[in-house]
Amino acid sequence: MKTLKIGTPAPEFTLPDKDGKEVSLSDFRGQKVVLYFYSKDNTSGCTRQANAFAALYDEFKEVGAQVIGISKDSSASHFRFAEKHSLPFVLLSDPERKAIEPYGVWQEKKLYGKVSMGVVRTTFIIDENGMIEKIMSKVKPDANAADVLDYLKDSKAQTANHKS
Questions:
Q1: Candidates 46, 90, 132, 145; catalytic one
Q2: Which residues of 13-32 are buried (b: 16+ CB within 10 A; e: fewer)?
Q3: Distances from the Cα of 121 to the Cαs of 29, 143, 148, 153, 160, in angstroms?
Q4: Which member of 21, 67, 82, 129 has the greatest number of CB atoms within 10 A?
Q5: Averaged over 127-155, what is the pLDDT?
Q6: In 3D, which of 117, 104, 151, 107 has the Cα closest to residue 8?
Q7: Rg, Å, the chain Cα set
């Protein structure tokens, strides 16, 4: 399994969104991207995580960040998930693991003593130039969005302080 490092280029991908439209990581050059990988639409943890990102979406826009969620679910599943929970951000479908594997989030998971392969909840912050700025592994669904936003606000404040 490939391990990505901070300061290296984020793997490029092109995947269909909830409407079947192709979306590429490079479409968002010039802005920060919060790229979060989750296991399944409409499961309790993934729904709480998505709702937390949705609740803070306007604040993510204020700091110039685009939120993108990726799972193995189909575009149709994402469409229903986004409609049901009024999710304002991009959801991408990756059933063939074209982004999931290069980002190293397809891993062995243990649940109730049973071992299986699956997506490990991970969030990447990608800078305006397509470089990995931060990696948050094994994130908590309820805290992830707020933690990411705090990080982005702190880094924006530090950047502003350096310029003044």
A1: 46
A2: bebbbbeeeebebeebeeeb
A3: 24, 12, 14, 22, 31
A4: 67
A5: 95
A6: 104
A7: 15
pLDDT digits (tens, 9 = 90+) for 71-114: 999 999 999 999 999 999 999 999 999 999 999 999 998 888 89
Write down the number of H helices and E strands in the chain: 4, 9
Place of tokens 């649940």: 111
Model confidence over 31-64: pLDDT tens digits? 999 999 999 999 999 999 999 999 999 999 999 9
Contacts of 113 (CB under 8 A, 6+ apart): none
15 is catalytic: no
Amino acid found at 68 = I
Q: Are 13 and 99 in contact (CB under 8 A)?
A: yes
The two tokens of residue 122 are: 């991970």
Backbone angles phi, psi at 6, to 5 degrees: -65, 140
- The count of residues in the chain is 164
To which residue do tokens 């991009």 refer? 90
Confidence (pLDDT) at 1: 47
- Per the listing, tokens 């604040």 go with 59
